[in-house]
Write a structure and sequence with these properties.
Chain lengths: ~280, ~375, ~280, ~375
C-alpha cells in the first residue's frame, strides 16, 4: 500500500540538468524509484544518468507514461513548470523549489485542487515510501520499511525524526514532507486522511512547528476522523516570539499559532506530544 | 519586506487608491510649504508610534518644523525615526478597517473589513470583522467589493467608493506581490471622500525577482544581520549564550528546544536553510565567531554532502579565524564516523545525537569560567 | 425524477427587479417553481411579486437555502453575477442573458466545471420539468407532463417543437434549452447522459442547428452510450452557407458543421431525423 | 467584427508583435515616400485578394501610385477596395502559420500552428497542424509558447521569438476580446526576424461594450442592413422571393427549411432574436416592406407578449406604410385566436402551424401574377 508514491510511480524530473536534478535523479533511482524521464526545454534527446530528457512534460508523458513529477526548477520558472505538469496530465507534482512567491503557490495549488491533482510542496523535501519509491531530496540512508506514517512541515527535522525511528528498528510506510511555506499543496489533514485509510500504516507521526494554525486544524481532524495512534512533535516551543525563524511558516502572530496552542489542541485530540524530537520513538513504542 | 508608510501610500496612489497629499522629509529644513494643516508622522516599520509621540499636528511651516524636529531621531520601540511624512489633515467622519492578506488554511487571499477602524484589528471582536476569501479560481470580481461594502453598511455613494478601493487593493496585491496590504483607518471624510489614512504593505520577499524596483529600499539591519542576509542565512539575536548553527528552520527550532530541556539558552542562531553545503557551513562558522557566544553548537543533518566534507569546511573556518570558542559539533549523514574523528582531533566536542549535543552544549554554557 | 430542476429546486433570481426578472419570476411561480429569493445589489429588503430581494446571492443562500439561480443580469454584469452565484454555493446556474462576450462564457464555464456546478446557457431559454419546476423564460402553456426528454440549442424553435409534442398529447420529462452560443455551460452530451439515467425519460428529442460540431459529437456519444430512442431535428438544412443566421452558433465554416454532416452522423447513430420540426411528433410515435 | 489588415496590424503592434513598417492610403496621391521596396495590398474583409490582383509590389513612389491606382476600387469577390496598405517588403526565408481562436467543444481558446504557412490553413493536412488548447483555469503560461515553437522545429533564437509572439497574441486576444487572431504567414526573414506578414483579427461583437474604440470602425453595409443592425435585427439577403420574419435563429432556419419543403424560396429574412416584442415586430414589418418581396411570411412564437398585442403591431405597420404585399401570418401563443381574427380581418392569410404557414406562403410565392 503506502500513500501517494509507490511501485506504480513513474517519475519525470523537471529541471533534471541542474545540479540538484542530476544528483537526486540518481539518488531516487538508488532508492528504487522508476525515474522514466527528465525535462529541460531545448535539451530533448540528451540523457542524464541514462534518463532520457524531453523538451516538455507533454512529450515525456506521451513517450514514457510518466504519472508523477518532481520539480527542481528555480522559483522564477517554477509556476510555469508545475502548471505545465498539470496541463500534461501528471497526477502528483512534488515541488522541491524553495522561495516560491506565495501568489504562485496559490495559483498552482488552486489549479491542482480543481483538477484533482496532488501537489506536495513547494519548499518541501519530498515523499518516500521505503521499499517502493522516493520523490524528492530526503536522504536514502535514514529510511527503513515499516508501518509508521510520517507527515512533517519541516525538512532536516524530518530526517532527524525518521532517522531516530529507524535507529530504533521501527520503519516507515510513507514519509511526507509537506513543506513549511504559508501555502502548500498538501496539508496535514490531506495526509492524515490518506494514512487513516492506508492499510500498511499502523501509527502516525506528525511533525509541526510554530506559526499558522494547520496543527490546530489537524488536531480537530484527528479528533473526528483518525483512529490510529498519533505521536507529534511541535518545533519552536522555546523559539522567541515575533522572530522570523528561517521560513515563512514560522511566524508567530496574533497570539495564535503558538507551540502551546498547538500542543494543547493535539493533546486534547488524544495525541502524544514529544518535548524534543528524539523522544518521538519512545512515544511510538 | 515591509514598506514605510510613505512608500506604501505611493504604491496605493499608483493603483488608484485615494491617499492624502503629502511629502516626506529627513530634515526639518526641507519643509518649505504645507498643503494646508498637516499631520507629521514618524516613518518607522513598527506599530504604536502614536502613543510614542511619533504623530503630531501642525498648522504652519514653523509648527511643522518644530514637530519634525521632535519626531526625527525618536526611538520608537527600538526603531530610530529617520524620516517623517507630512500629510494633509483629514476631516474624519468615520474610520473603517480594510486589508487583504494570505489565508493559509484556505490557500487564498482574504479580505478583512470592519466598521471599527482606527484601532488594532486584533482588539476588534470577531463578529465585527468580515473575513471574505477570494476564490483563486473565480478571481476578484466586482461582487467581492460589493460584499465588503454591504457588510460595512455605508451610504450608496461611499459603498461604491469602498467597492472600488477593494478592486484596486486586490489589483495592487496581485501585481506587486504583496502578502499584506492594510488600510487602517480607511477614512470617510466630511465631504464624503473615502481615503487611506494609514497604509501598510508587505511585499513578498520571495517575489522580489520580478520587482526589481523594491530591492533598493533601505532596511534597518545590524552589520551581522546584513552579512547573514547576503549569505542567505537566517540570523536571529536572542538573549542566551549558546551560538546555534543548524540547517533547516525546523531542525534549528528543535535544537533550541533541546538546549532548553538541558537548561541552556541560545544567544544567537544561524539557520542555513535545508542545505548542508560545506561552503555555507564555513561562512556560518565565521559569522558565528563574530557574534562571540560562549559555546557554539553545530547541528548539521547531511543530505547531499558527505560528513567528512562538511567537517573539512568547519576546520577551515576555525583555522582561518583562530576560533577558540568551545564547539559542540554534531554532523549526521554519510561518512559520519570519519567526520566526527576529524572534528575530535581538532579539539571539538563531537556528539552523536541531537539530545546528546544539546546536553553537552548546555553543560558547557553553564560552566563558570 | 426529471433532470436538473425539480421539486427540490429552490430558486434565486438574479436581476429580479428588471422587466424580464419581474415578469418571469411570476411565470416561474405559476409553473410551480419554488422561487425563494431575488437579488439586486442595493435593493435588499424590497419585494418583487412577494419574493424577498437581497443584496447578494450569498445573503439569499444564507437566508433562504436557494440552490439554483436564474440570471437575467445584462451582459456587462453577467459574468460577475454568474461567478457570484458559484461563489455563494449555488449548484445550478441558468443564464438567460444574451450577447455575453465569449471570453466571459469561457471564464464562467471553466470555473463552474472545476467546481462541479451545472451552468445552462448563456443565451438560453432555460429548463422546465413539467409538474415540478421551470427556470427560465420558456412559455408555460406549451408544456405537458410526460416522458420525453427534450434538449435543444434553440429558443423559440424549442417552443415550436415542445408545443407540437404536447398538441399530440405526448408530454415532457424535462426540456433543456442549452443555448446556441459558441461556448455553453451544458452541451448535448451532458444532457443526453442525464436523460439516459433518468427513469422518467423514455424517449429523447434533440434539436440542433447548423454550425459547430456538437451535434456530430452528440451522435458519437449516442452511438456508444444512449439506449433510449432519439429523434432529432437540425435547423438550417436550407440556410445559405457562410451567412450569420442571428446567433453565433449558426455559422457554417470550414466545411464542417453543415446540416448534411450532422444529419448523416445522427442517422449513423440510429437517430431518426425529422425534415421539418412539425415531423418530430410523428417520429416519436 | 472583422478588422482590416492595417487595423489588425496596428492592434498587433500595440501588443508588441512585430509587423512590417507601412501606411494606409485611400488615394494614390497620398503616397509621398516609401520605407523601401513595398507591397501594395488591398484592404478588404475577404480572402483571395492575391489571386484577384489585390497585391502588387512597388519599388518607387511612381510604381506604388500606379499599383495603388490599379487596386483602389477593385471589386474583390463582391467587396470594393477603398484603401490600400503599403508595407515594406520582407526577405522571406520561411512562412509559418499561427492563430488563436475559440474551441467550442473544449470551451476554451486554442492555438493553431503550422510550419506550412502562407496558404489556406484548411488545405494543410491535419498532422501538419498543432492544435493546442489553452486551459482556462491554468491560463496562458510560458510552456504554451514553448510547445508551439517546439512543434514548429525552429532554431533556438527563432523558437524564443515565436514563443514570445504566442504570449503576446494570447494577451491580445484576451485584452481585446478577439474571437480570432491569425498571422498567416508568420514570416521568418533572412536576417532572422519573426514578423507578421498578414494579420486577421475578429473582435467579438458582443464585447464591444468594453471596447468603445472599435465601435466607429467602418462597416460595408447596405442601407437596409444598416437599419436592421440599428434595430438589432438579423437581416440576410437571399435569392428567392419570400420575405420571412421570425423570432429566433432556430425558428427562422426552421421556417426556411419548411418553405423549402413546399417548393418556396426565401428572398430575405429578418430574425428578431428570441423576442416577441410588438414594437420590434412592427419595425421588422416596415423594414421588410422596403425589401419588396413577393410574399411576406410572418412566423412569431410568443413568449412574453399576447398574440393580439403582436397582431396590433403588425396592423399598425401595414397601415403606416400601406403595405399591399400578400402576408401569411402565424402568431402562436396566448390569445392566439383573437390575434388571428384581427389579422384575417385586415386581409392577411392566417395560419395555425408552421408547416401550414410555409405551405401557404410557398403557394402564394409561386403564383403567376
Amino acid at each position: 500500500m503506502a500513500i501517494i508514491v509507490d511501485d506504480k510511480t513513474k517519475l519525470v524530473i523537471q529541471g533534471i540538468t541542474g545540479y540538484q536534478g542530476t544528483y537526486h535523479s540518481q539518488a531516487m533511482r538508488d532508492f528504487g524509484t522508476q525515474v522514466v524521464a527528465g525535462v529541460r526545454p531545448g535539451k530533448a534527446g540528451e540523457k542524464v544518468n541514462d534518463i532520457p530528457v524531453f523538451d516538455s512534460v507533454r512529450d515525456a508523458v506521451n513517450r514514457t507514461g510518466a504519472n508523477t513529477s518532481c520539480v527542481f526548477v528555480p522559483a522564477p520558472g517554477c509556476r510555469d513548470a508545475a502548471l505545465e505538469a498539470i496541463y500534461a496530465g501528471i497526477e502528483t507534482v512534488v515541488i522541491i523549489t524553495e522561495h516560491l512567491p506565495v501568489m504562485d503557490a496559490i495559483h498552482i495549488v488552486s489549479v491542482a485542487r480543481s483538477r484533482g491533482v496532488t501537489v506536495i510542496g513547494p519548499n518541501c523535501p519530498g515523499i518516500a515510501s521505503p521499499g517502493k519509491a522516493k520523490v524528492g531530496i530526503l536522504p536514502n540512508m535514514i529510511f527503513r520499511k515499516g508501518n509508521i506514517g510520517v507527515v512533517s512541515k519541516s525538512g532536516t527535522l524530518t530526517y532527524e525524526i525518521v532517522n531516530a525511528i529507524s535507529e530504533r528498528k521501527m520503519g516507515q510506510s510513507t514519509c511526507v514532507g509537506i513543506g513549511g511555506d504559508r501555502v502548500s499543496g498538501t496539508n496535514f489533514i490531506d495526509v492524515l486522511e490518506r494514512f487513516q485509510t492506508d492499510k500498511q500504516t499502523k501509527k502516525i507521526v506528525l511533525v509541526g512547528e510554530i506559526g499558522g494554525t494547520s496543527e490546530e486544524e489537524a488536531a480537530e481532524y484527528i479528533k473526528g476522523n483518525v483512529t490510529k495512534p498519533v505521536v507529534a512533535y511541535i518545533a519552536g516551543r522555546t523559539a522567541p516570539p515575533g522572530k522570523r525563524m528561517g521560513h515563512a511558516g514560522a511566524i508567530i502572530a496574533r497570539g495564535r499559532g503558538t507551540a502551546e496552542s498547538k500542543i494543547k489542541a493535539l493533546e486534547a485530540a488524544g495525541v502524544k506530544v514529544a518535548k524534543i524530537p528524539t523522544d518521538v520513538p519512545d512515544l511510538l513504542e | 519586506m515591509k514598506l514605510f508608510e510613505y512608500k506604501a501610500k505611493e504604491v496605493m496612489r499608483k493603483h488608484g487608491i485615494p491617499v492624502p497629499d503629502g511629502f516626506v522629509v529627513s530634515k526639518p529644513d526641507e519643509i518649505k510649504s504645507l498643503p494646508g494643516p498637516v499631520m507629521v508622522k514618524a516613518q518607522v516599520l513598527i506599530g504604536g508610534r502614536g502613543k510614542a509621540g511619533g504623530i503630531k499636528p501642525a498648522d504652519t511651516v514653523a509648527d511643522a518644523k518644530k514637530a519634525a524636529s521632535a519626531i526625527l531621531g525618536l526611538n520608537i520601540r527600538g526603531y530610530i525615526t529617520k524620516q517623517v511624512l507630512l500629510e494633509k489633515r483629514l476631516d474624519v467622519v468615520k474610520e473603517l478597517y480594510l486589508s487583504i492578506t494570505i489565508d493559509r488554511s484556505r490557500r487564498s487571499l482574504i479580505f478583512m473589513a470592519s466598521a471599527a477602524g482606527g484601532m488594532d484589528i486584533e482588539s476588534v471582536p470577531e463578529d465585527k470583522i468580515l473575513m471574505l476569501p477570494v476564490d483563486p479560481i473565480i478571481g476578484y470580481q466586482p461582487f467581492v467589493g460589493r460584499h465588503v461594502a454591504s457588510f460595512l453598511k455605508l451610504e450608496p455613494e461611499q459603498a461604491k467608493r469602498v467597492a472600488d478601493i477593494c478592486a484596486k487593493l486586490h489589483e495592487l496585491v496581485v501585481e506587486e506581490d504583496a502578502e499584506l496590504a492594510e488600510i487602517n483607518p480607511l477614512v470617510i471624510t466630511k465631504d464624503g471622500k473615502v481615503i487611506a489614512g494609514d497604509a501598510k504593505i508587505t511585499i513578498d520577499s520571495d517575489a522580489l525577482f520580478r520587482h526589481k524596483d523594491y530591492e533598493s529600499l533601505p532596511e534597518d539591519l545590524t552589520p551581522l544581520e546584513e552579512k547573514a542576509k547576503k549569505l542567505d542565512i537566517a540570523f536571529v539575536q536572542l538573549d542566551g549564550n549558546i551560538g546555534v548553527i543548524a540547517n533547516g528552520a525546523g531542525l534549528t527550532m528543535a535544537t533550541l528546544d533541546s538546549i532548553n530541556m538541558f537548561g541552556g539558552k541560545a544567544g544567537v542562531f544561524l539557520d542555513l536553510g535545508g542545505t548542508d553545503d560545506p561552503e555555507k557551513v564555513k561562512s556560518a562558522m565565521l559569522l558565528m565567531s563574530e557574534a562571540n557566544p560562549k559555546v557554539i553548537l553545530l547541528n548539521i543533518f547531511g543530505g547531499i554532502t558527505k560528513c567528512d566534507t562538511v567537517a573539512k569546511g568547519v576546520l577551515e573556518a576555525i583555522e582561518a579565524k583562530k576560533i577558540r570558542t568551545p564547539i559542540v559539533a554534531r554532523i549526521k549523514g554519510v561518512n559520519e564516523e570519519a567526520g566526527r574523528t576529524m572534528l575530535k582531533n581538532a579539539g571539538m566536542i563531537p556528539a552523536y545525537g541531537l539530545s546528546e549535543a544539546a546536553e553537552l552544549a548546555s553543560k558547557e554554557s553553564l560552566k563558570v569560567v
